[in-house]
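Hi everyone, sorry if this is the wrong subforum. Our group has a chain we'd like a structural model of before ordering constructs, and none of us has done structure prediction before. Sequence below.
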Amino acid sequence: MQATTYVGIGQIKSLGAKLELPLTSGGCETQGSEGKASCGSSDGPADMSPEIWEKVKNHPCYSEEAHHHYARMHVAVAPACNIQCNYCNRKYDCSNESRPGVVSQKLTPDQAVKKVVAVASEIPQMTVLGIAGPGDALASPQKTFDTFRMLQEQAPDIKLCLSTNGLALPDMVDEICKYNVDHVTITINMVDPAIGEKIYPWIFWNHKRITGYEASRILHERQMLGLEMLTARGVLTKVNSVLIPGVNDKHLIDVNREVKKRGAFLHNIMPLISEAEHGTVFGLTGQRGPTAAELKAVQDACMGGANLMRHCRQCRADAVGLLGEDRSDEFTPEKIEQMEVVYDLDRRRAYQDQVEIERQAQQAAKQEALAAAAAMAAVSDLKVLVAVATKGGGRVNEHFGHVTEFQIFEVSTTQALFVGHRRVDQYCQGGFGDDEQLPSVVRAINDCHAVLVAKIGACPKDELIQAGIEPVDQYVGEFIEKAALDWFNDYRARIASGAVVHQNRGDAQIRQGAFTTVLASAAKAA
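Answer:
Right subforum, don't worry. Here is the predicted structure as tokens:
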């Protein structure tokens, strides 16, 4: 591999014209004085071209709405990595842990394809196959592209994705396009090498290890070039950024702006995972991860730039199932050997047709609730957070005591917007509530005004009320957005009648407000 000089988007377009390459942008165009993005994680077919909608409509990572209904899986065929990140340690594995770089077993391309076909035959809503490690997909290119080649032959309806740090990306764009990989994720944590050298100890490039500022400079230039090349070829690109408090938190506003310029379709800002037991540099040196409020504040400060993904679950490199669940234990090599695998394409399509009917019903319910909200007299510009207990399907259908993550929606008169999720330890164990565990569950949602559940016991209900969080169990089985908006309309009516007084939600919201002010200043300065 030879050193590459940084190339700008104009040069890429010129090169594309010479080679007769399609220059369809993979990013989001903007329109209107406020620059409202015309495509994004929560948008629908009216907001983007038919070609783009076809690519994202059933992709759970590229469409927030789709992630309620469609599943993905990752196969661990790419063990090598060409950079070192201070937040990564691929040697550690716990079957109950969900974080990038973690796998229980590495697979050969043949084993991976066999597993994908088995999963797709059992989970017809599995629409996406990604290679995300456990190292870097493009640091083991032979294994990655052998897997894609065989999958194209055996499971042609499954979308192909890969994740990369971007160092090798410019050299692999032609190969990516050859196999119709039209979704690529690049992890970009900085656009300033001075910040990058705090995150990356070294890279391996041109057959040698490079450290310090020079390593981050090369990585940055390769990432920007690779992103521009993918955009020029019409490949949808998602940028992942790890939020590291005190290192790149304010800087991510610059990252968001720069990746938008280069055509990124989505920007996914994720919290640093830095538990000491994982053995990462950041974990061992005490670098903390962001609070939920800090993460939301950074995401909010980036609004108006590249469209934001907020429903990421930071999946394992061998994850299977809906986002937020992992069914990989059902598809071990031993269990696959015992399965009678029949890849029935007609059955898969028929099942997905039913999923789309359910999805349309969800949209209709949401629009009905929004119309009701618009018809009510306004109560200033009220906007609140609501936590939701769900086990999938986009409905309120989980018992409070069985929740391992709450989905968080920001609700106003104009929208019920998914803004994140909060992981918690399950309160009920063996049919009984763990009173010692309850305070930590409540603290996880202490900036929310209500929590929507299928069922809740007397003890947690009292604890929530004391914390100023309204437990709500009258929307069992309803679509989440409609339930959240219906509750919000009722809440507004109670405020208007004087039955309740609206209050800001606790210290967490105050801390978030202060942090947002700092970020807003940084955004203005930029």
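For your construct planning: The CA atoms of residues 160 and 180 lie 7 Å apart. The first helix runs from residue 9 to 19.
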